[in-house]
Design a protein that fits this description.
The longest helix has 21 residues. This protein is mainly beta. The protein is globular. A hairpin with a 7-residue loop joins strand 9 and strand 10. The chain has six helices and 27 strands. The chain is 12% helix and 36% strand. The strands form eight sheets. Strands 7, 11, 12, 19, 25 and 27 form a six-stranded antiparallel sheet that branches.
Length: 382
Protein backbone atom coordinates (compact mmCIF):
# COMPACT_ATOMS: atom_id res chain seq x y z
CA UNK A 1 0.00 0.00 0.00
CA UNK A 2 2.80 2.35 0.91
CA UNK A 3 4.61 1.45 -2.31
CA UNK A 4 1.46 2.20 -4.32
CA UNK A 5 1.07 5.57 -2.60
CA UNK A 6 4.73 6.37 -3.25
CA UNK A 7 4.34 5.52 -6.95
CA UNK A 8 1.20 7.69 -7.18
CA UNK A 9 2.97 10.66 -5.55
CA UNK A 10 6.00 10.27 -7.81
CA UNK A 11 3.90 10.20 -10.97
CA UNK A 12 1.84 13.15 -9.76
CA UNK A 13 5.03 15.09 -9.01
CA UNK A 14 6.44 14.38 -12.46
CA UNK A 15 3.19 15.49 -14.09
CA UNK A 16 3.22 18.69 -12.05
CA UNK A 17 6.87 19.37 -13.02
CA UNK A 18 6.08 18.71 -16.67
CA UNK A 19 3.14 21.07 -16.43
CA UNK A 20 5.39 23.74 -14.93
CA UNK A 21 7.89 23.36 -17.77
CA UNK A 22 5.16 23.57 -20.40
CA UNK A 23 3.63 26.63 -18.78
CA UNK A 24 6.91 28.55 -18.35
CA UNK A 25 6.45 32.03 -19.78
CA UNK A 26 8.50 33.07 -22.81
CA UNK A 27 11.46 35.32 -22.07
CA UNK A 28 10.53 39.02 -21.95
CA UNK A 29 14.09 40.37 -22.31
CA UNK A 30 15.30 42.03 -25.51
CA UNK A 31 19.00 42.77 -25.07
CA UNK A 32 22.22 42.61 -27.07
CA UNK A 33 24.73 40.81 -24.84
CA UNK A 34 27.71 40.97 -27.18
CA UNK A 35 28.72 41.91 -30.71
CA UNK A 36 31.17 39.65 -32.52
CA UNK A 37 33.59 40.83 -35.20
CA UNK A 38 36.98 39.33 -36.19
CA UNK A 39 39.45 39.91 -33.33
CA UNK A 40 42.13 41.28 -35.66
CA UNK A 41 39.68 44.00 -36.75
CA UNK A 42 39.17 45.38 -33.24
CA UNK A 43 41.49 47.81 -31.45
CA UNK A 44 40.46 46.30 -28.10
CA UNK A 45 37.83 44.21 -26.33
CA UNK A 46 36.34 46.77 -23.93
CA UNK A 47 32.85 47.34 -25.36
CA UNK A 48 30.16 48.81 -23.13
CA UNK A 49 26.78 47.15 -23.81
CA UNK A 50 25.01 48.95 -20.96
CA UNK A 51 25.07 52.58 -22.03
CA UNK A 52 21.92 54.53 -21.11
CA UNK A 53 19.26 55.47 -23.65
CA UNK A 54 20.36 58.34 -25.90
CA UNK A 55 17.45 60.65 -26.77
CA UNK A 56 19.37 62.22 -29.66
CA UNK A 57 19.70 58.79 -31.29
CA UNK A 58 16.33 57.51 -30.11
CA UNK A 59 18.18 54.29 -29.29
CA UNK A 60 20.61 52.57 -26.94
CA UNK A 61 24.12 53.25 -28.30
CA UNK A 62 26.94 50.70 -28.65
CA UNK A 63 30.33 52.02 -29.76
CA UNK A 64 32.86 49.63 -31.32
CA UNK A 65 36.35 50.81 -32.32
CA UNK A 66 38.06 49.08 -35.27
CA UNK A 67 41.48 49.52 -36.79
CA UNK A 68 42.12 52.17 -39.41
CA UNK A 69 41.71 50.74 -42.89
CA UNK A 70 38.78 48.48 -41.97
CA UNK A 71 36.15 48.55 -44.71
CA UNK A 72 33.16 50.02 -42.87
CA UNK A 73 30.90 49.63 -45.91
CA UNK A 74 30.75 45.83 -45.71
CA UNK A 75 30.68 44.54 -42.14
CA UNK A 76 28.62 41.58 -40.93
CA UNK A 77 28.58 41.56 -37.12
CA UNK A 78 26.87 38.75 -35.27
CA UNK A 79 25.10 39.38 -31.98
CA UNK A 80 24.58 37.32 -28.85
CA UNK A 81 21.05 38.06 -27.64
CA UNK A 82 19.02 37.24 -24.56
CA UNK A 83 17.43 33.80 -24.78
CA UNK A 84 14.82 33.45 -27.49
CA UNK A 85 15.15 37.02 -28.76
CA UNK A 86 15.40 37.94 -32.44
CA UNK A 87 17.07 40.87 -34.21
CA UNK A 88 16.40 42.97 -37.30
CA UNK A 89 18.33 43.49 -39.59
CA UNK A 90 19.18 39.80 -39.59
CA UNK A 91 21.97 38.53 -37.38
CA UNK A 92 25.18 38.30 -39.41
CA UNK A 93 23.85 40.30 -42.37
CA UNK A 94 26.23 42.67 -44.18
CA UNK A 95 25.65 46.35 -43.46
CA UNK A 96 27.22 49.72 -44.26
CA UNK A 97 28.58 51.22 -41.02
CA UNK A 98 29.86 54.52 -42.36
CA UNK A 99 26.97 55.81 -40.24
CA UNK A 100 25.44 54.11 -37.17
CA UNK A 101 23.16 51.19 -38.05
CA UNK A 102 19.93 50.73 -36.11
CA UNK A 103 19.01 47.25 -34.90
CA UNK A 104 15.77 46.27 -33.19
CA UNK A 105 15.74 43.35 -30.77
CA UNK A 106 12.41 41.63 -30.08
CA UNK A 107 11.88 39.50 -26.99
CA UNK A 108 10.88 35.85 -27.18
CA UNK A 109 7.34 36.70 -26.03
CA UNK A 110 7.11 39.36 -28.81
CA UNK A 111 5.89 41.97 -26.31
CA UNK A 112 9.13 43.90 -25.86
CA UNK A 113 11.38 45.70 -28.29
CA UNK A 114 14.64 47.57 -27.86
CA UNK A 115 16.39 49.62 -30.53
CA UNK A 116 20.17 49.89 -30.61
CA UNK A 117 22.39 52.24 -32.62
CA UNK A 118 25.59 50.37 -33.46
CA UNK A 119 28.42 52.81 -34.11
CA UNK A 120 31.52 51.13 -35.60
CA UNK A 121 34.28 53.70 -35.96
CA UNK A 122 38.00 54.27 -36.38
CA UNK A 123 40.18 55.21 -33.39
CA UNK A 124 40.22 58.77 -32.20
CA UNK A 125 43.58 60.42 -32.68
CA UNK A 126 44.45 59.95 -29.03
CA UNK A 127 47.17 57.81 -27.58
CA UNK A 128 46.72 55.15 -24.96
CA UNK A 129 48.34 56.03 -21.63
CA UNK A 130 52.07 55.37 -21.46
CA UNK A 131 52.41 55.04 -17.68
CA UNK A 132 50.97 51.86 -16.18
CA UNK A 133 50.48 51.57 -12.41
CA UNK A 134 48.03 48.63 -12.32
CA UNK A 135 45.65 50.30 -9.89
CA UNK A 136 42.41 49.86 -11.88
CA UNK A 137 40.52 46.56 -12.19
CA UNK A 138 37.05 45.35 -13.11
CA UNK A 139 35.68 42.05 -11.81
CA UNK A 140 34.23 39.86 -14.56
CA UNK A 141 31.96 36.83 -13.87
CA UNK A 142 32.51 33.86 -16.19
CA UNK A 143 31.70 30.13 -15.93
CA UNK A 144 30.83 30.47 -12.21
CA UNK A 145 34.16 32.22 -11.58
CA UNK A 146 35.24 35.81 -11.13
CA UNK A 147 38.46 37.24 -12.54
CA UNK A 148 40.09 40.64 -12.92
CA UNK A 149 40.39 42.72 -16.07
CA UNK A 150 42.97 45.48 -15.66
CA UNK A 151 42.69 48.85 -17.36
CA UNK A 152 44.52 52.17 -17.48
CA UNK A 153 42.72 55.50 -17.68
CA UNK A 154 44.19 58.99 -17.73
CA UNK A 155 42.80 62.38 -18.64
CA UNK A 156 43.48 63.23 -22.29
CA UNK A 157 44.15 59.62 -23.32
CA UNK A 158 41.99 56.80 -24.59
CA UNK A 159 41.35 54.06 -22.02
CA UNK A 160 43.56 50.99 -22.37
CA UNK A 161 42.03 47.66 -21.38
CA UNK A 162 44.69 45.02 -20.87
CA UNK A 163 44.13 41.45 -22.08
CA UNK A 164 45.13 38.15 -20.46
CA UNK A 165 44.45 34.43 -20.62
CA UNK A 166 42.18 34.56 -17.55
CA UNK A 167 39.07 33.77 -19.58
CA UNK A 168 40.71 30.60 -20.88
CA UNK A 169 41.71 29.55 -17.36
CA UNK A 170 38.08 30.03 -16.26
CA UNK A 171 37.13 27.07 -18.49
CA UNK A 172 39.22 24.69 -16.37
CA UNK A 173 37.00 24.82 -13.28
CA UNK A 174 34.53 26.81 -11.24
CA UNK A 175 34.42 28.65 -7.95
CA UNK A 176 37.67 30.53 -8.51
CA UNK A 177 38.10 33.95 -6.89
CA UNK A 178 40.00 36.71 -8.76
CA UNK A 179 43.31 36.04 -6.99
CA UNK A 180 43.12 32.32 -7.86
CA UNK A 181 43.63 33.25 -11.50
CA UNK A 182 47.00 33.48 -13.25
CA UNK A 183 46.61 37.24 -13.76
CA UNK A 184 45.57 39.45 -10.85
CA UNK A 185 46.85 42.28 -8.67
CA UNK A 186 48.67 42.41 -5.35
CA UNK A 187 48.47 45.14 -2.68
CA UNK A 188 52.24 44.78 -2.13
CA UNK A 189 53.34 47.00 -4.99
CA UNK A 190 56.26 49.35 -5.21
CA UNK A 191 53.63 52.08 -5.06
CA UNK A 192 50.10 50.97 -4.22
CA UNK A 193 48.94 47.87 -6.08
CA UNK A 194 51.07 45.98 -8.55
CA UNK A 195 50.50 43.42 -11.29
CA UNK A 196 50.70 39.82 -10.07
CA UNK A 197 51.34 37.02 -12.60
CA UNK A 198 51.45 33.43 -11.32
CA UNK A 199 51.79 30.26 -13.41
CA UNK A 200 48.95 27.93 -12.39
CA UNK A 201 48.16 24.26 -12.95
CA UNK A 202 45.02 23.75 -15.05
CA UNK A 203 43.86 20.47 -13.49
CA UNK A 204 42.56 17.37 -15.21
CA UNK A 205 40.82 19.23 -18.04
CA UNK A 206 43.94 21.18 -18.99
CA UNK A 207 46.09 18.05 -18.83
CA UNK A 208 43.59 16.17 -20.99
CA UNK A 209 43.89 18.71 -23.83
CA UNK A 210 47.68 19.07 -23.53
CA UNK A 211 47.59 22.40 -21.66
CA UNK A 212 48.73 21.43 -18.14
CA UNK A 213 49.77 24.94 -17.05
CA UNK A 214 48.55 28.49 -17.58
CA UNK A 215 51.19 31.18 -17.28
CA UNK A 216 50.19 34.45 -15.70
CA UNK A 217 50.27 36.95 -18.55
CA UNK A 218 49.18 40.44 -19.47
CA UNK A 219 49.39 42.12 -22.86
CA UNK A 220 48.08 44.93 -25.01
CA UNK A 221 45.80 43.31 -27.56
CA UNK A 222 42.95 40.81 -27.44
CA UNK A 223 42.30 37.17 -26.58
CA UNK A 224 40.03 35.08 -28.81
CA UNK A 225 38.45 32.52 -26.48
CA UNK A 226 36.74 30.82 -29.43
CA UNK A 227 40.01 29.51 -30.87
CA UNK A 228 42.01 29.22 -27.65
CA UNK A 229 41.59 25.45 -27.34
CA UNK A 230 42.45 24.66 -30.97
CA UNK A 231 45.24 27.20 -31.62
CA UNK A 232 46.35 29.09 -28.53
CA UNK A 233 49.10 31.07 -30.27
CA UNK A 234 46.71 32.38 -32.92
CA UNK A 235 44.11 33.21 -30.24
CA UNK A 236 46.49 35.75 -28.71
CA UNK A 237 46.48 39.02 -30.68
CA UNK A 238 49.07 41.69 -29.87
CA UNK A 239 48.75 45.39 -30.57
CA UNK A 240 46.78 48.62 -30.47
CA UNK A 241 47.04 51.80 -32.52
CA UNK A 242 49.87 54.08 -31.39
CA UNK A 243 50.78 57.56 -32.63
CA UNK A 244 54.29 58.01 -31.23
CA UNK A 245 57.72 56.47 -31.65
CA UNK A 246 58.59 54.33 -28.61
CA UNK A 247 62.19 54.49 -27.36
CA UNK A 248 62.28 52.49 -24.13
CA UNK A 249 60.18 50.27 -21.89
CA UNK A 250 61.10 50.79 -18.24
CA UNK A 251 59.68 49.44 -15.00
CA UNK A 252 60.28 47.39 -11.87
CA UNK A 253 59.91 43.67 -11.18
CA UNK A 254 60.24 40.90 -8.60
CA UNK A 255 60.48 37.25 -9.64
CA UNK A 256 60.54 33.80 -8.06
CA UNK A 257 60.55 30.68 -10.24
CA UNK A 258 58.33 27.74 -9.30
CA UNK A 259 59.97 24.54 -7.96
CA UNK A 260 59.14 22.10 -10.80
CA UNK A 261 59.27 22.88 -14.51
CA UNK A 262 56.88 20.93 -16.71
CA UNK A 263 57.60 20.23 -20.36
CA UNK A 264 55.38 18.00 -22.48
CA UNK A 265 53.55 17.03 -19.31
CA UNK A 266 56.71 15.77 -17.56
CA UNK A 267 58.75 17.30 -14.74
CA UNK A 268 62.27 18.34 -15.87
CA UNK A 269 65.35 20.02 -14.43
CA UNK A 270 64.80 23.24 -16.37
CA UNK A 271 64.59 26.51 -14.48
CA UNK A 272 61.65 28.73 -15.30
CA UNK A 273 62.26 32.31 -16.43
CA UNK A 274 59.87 35.18 -17.10
CA UNK A 275 59.53 37.34 -20.20
CA UNK A 276 58.95 41.04 -20.81
CA UNK A 277 58.93 42.49 -24.31
CA UNK A 278 57.35 45.18 -26.45
CA UNK A 279 56.57 45.25 -30.18
CA UNK A 280 56.23 48.17 -32.58
CA UNK A 281 55.06 47.25 -36.06
CA UNK A 282 53.45 48.57 -39.20
CA UNK A 283 49.82 47.83 -40.02
CA UNK A 284 48.98 46.77 -43.56
CA UNK A 285 45.86 45.53 -45.31
CA UNK A 286 46.80 41.90 -44.61
CA UNK A 287 48.34 42.42 -41.15
CA UNK A 288 46.34 44.39 -38.60
CA UNK A 289 47.62 42.55 -35.51
CA UNK A 290 50.44 40.16 -34.67
CA UNK A 291 49.70 36.92 -32.83
CA UNK A 292 51.52 34.66 -30.38
CA UNK A 293 53.70 33.08 -33.08
CA UNK A 294 55.91 36.19 -33.01
CA UNK A 295 58.04 34.88 -30.11
CA UNK A 296 58.46 31.46 -31.72
CA UNK A 297 59.75 33.29 -34.80
CA UNK A 298 62.28 35.17 -32.64
CA UNK A 299 60.33 38.42 -33.02
CA UNK A 300 60.79 38.35 -36.80
CA UNK A 301 58.07 39.45 -39.23
CA UNK A 302 58.06 41.60 -42.32
CA UNK A 303 55.86 44.20 -40.58
CA UNK A 304 58.13 44.57 -37.54
CA UNK A 305 59.75 47.97 -37.04
CA UNK A 306 61.28 47.63 -33.56
CA UNK A 307 61.26 45.39 -30.49
CA UNK A 308 62.37 45.75 -26.89
CA UNK A 309 63.15 42.42 -25.18
CA UNK A 310 64.44 41.70 -21.68
CA UNK A 311 67.59 39.58 -21.43
CA UNK A 312 68.42 39.72 -17.70
CA UNK A 313 65.73 37.56 -16.06
CA UNK A 314 67.35 36.74 -12.72
CA UNK A 315 65.26 35.98 -9.64
CA UNK A 316 64.98 38.77 -7.08
CA UNK A 317 62.91 39.49 -3.99
CA UNK A 318 63.65 43.22 -4.24
CA UNK A 319 62.07 45.68 -6.64
CA UNK A 320 64.53 45.70 -9.53
CA UNK A 321 64.51 48.29 -12.30
CA UNK A 322 64.70 47.25 -15.96
CA UNK A 323 65.22 49.46 -19.00
CA UNK A 324 64.68 47.94 -22.44
CA UNK A 325 65.66 49.84 -25.59
CA UNK A 326 63.58 49.48 -28.74
CA UNK A 327 65.92 48.06 -31.39
CA UNK A 328 65.13 49.75 -34.72
CA UNK A 329 68.47 48.99 -36.36
CA UNK A 330 67.86 45.24 -36.41
CA UNK A 331 64.82 45.61 -38.70
CA UNK A 332 66.33 48.31 -40.90
CA UNK A 333 63.16 50.35 -41.28
CA UNK A 334 62.32 54.01 -40.95
CA UNK A 335 59.04 55.40 -39.65
CA UNK A 336 56.71 57.18 -42.03
CA UNK A 337 55.63 60.31 -40.07
CA UNK A 338 52.37 60.68 -41.99
CA UNK A 339 51.45 57.04 -41.51
CA UNK A 340 52.30 57.34 -37.82
CA UNK A 341 50.01 60.36 -37.47
CA UNK A 342 47.23 58.46 -39.26
CA UNK A 343 47.40 55.50 -36.88
CA UNK A 344 49.28 53.18 -39.22
CA UNK A 345 51.42 51.56 -36.49
CA UNK A 346 50.66 49.32 -33.52
CA UNK A 347 52.40 48.88 -30.19
CA UNK A 348 52.10 46.03 -27.71
CA UNK A 349 53.61 45.19 -24.33
CA UNK A 350 53.69 41.53 -23.27
CA UNK A 351 54.41 40.27 -19.74
CA UNK A 352 54.56 36.60 -18.71
CA UNK A 353 55.52 34.68 -15.55
CA UNK A 354 56.78 31.78 -17.70
CA UNK A 355 58.61 32.57 -20.94
CA UNK A 356 57.40 29.38 -22.64
CA UNK A 357 53.96 29.50 -21.09
CA UNK A 358 52.49 30.20 -24.52
CA UNK A 359 53.28 26.58 -25.43
CA UNK A 360 52.20 25.38 -21.95
CA UNK A 361 55.69 24.85 -20.54
CA UNK A 362 56.60 26.34 -17.18
CA UNK A 363 56.74 25.89 -13.44
CA UNK A 364 53.52 26.18 -11.41
CA UNK A 365 54.04 28.82 -8.75
CA UNK A 366 56.39 31.00 -10.81
CA UNK A 367 55.50 34.52 -9.71
CA UNK A 368 56.25 37.79 -11.50
CA UNK A 369 55.33 41.13 -9.93
CA UNK A 370 55.45 44.27 -12.10
CA UNK A 371 54.94 47.89 -11.11
CA UNK A 372 55.51 51.45 -12.35
CA UNK A 373 55.80 50.44 -16.00
CA UNK A 374 56.37 53.20 -18.57
CA UNK A 375 56.59 53.39 -22.33
CA UNK A 376 59.06 56.20 -23.06
CA UNK A 377 58.47 57.88 -26.42
CA UNK A 378 60.48 60.18 -28.68
CA UNK A 379 57.76 62.76 -29.13
CA UNK A 380 56.28 64.44 -26.05
CA UNK A 381 52.79 63.13 -25.37
CA UNK A 382 49.88 65.51 -25.01
Amino acid sequence: MKLKNLFTCTVTGLLLCTSCIKDEAPNAEADILSCILPAEMLTGTDIDYNRPYDKSLNAYPIYIEVNNGTDLTRLAPTFELTEGASIEPANGSTQNFTNPVRYTVTSEDKNWHRTYAINIHYPETKSIPTVFNFENVKTVPYNKNEYYVLYEAASGYSTLTWSSGNQGFALTGSGYAPNDFPTSISPNGRTGNCLQLITRETGSLGTLVGMPIAAGNLFIGSFDIGSAMSDALSATKFGTTFYYEPIKLVGYYKYKAGPKFYENGESTNRKDVFNIYALFYEKTKDVQMRDGHITKNNYEHENMVAAAVITDTHETSEWTRFELDFDYEHYGKTIDPQKLANGGYNVSIVLSASKDGDVFQGAPGSTLLIDDLELVCKQPLR
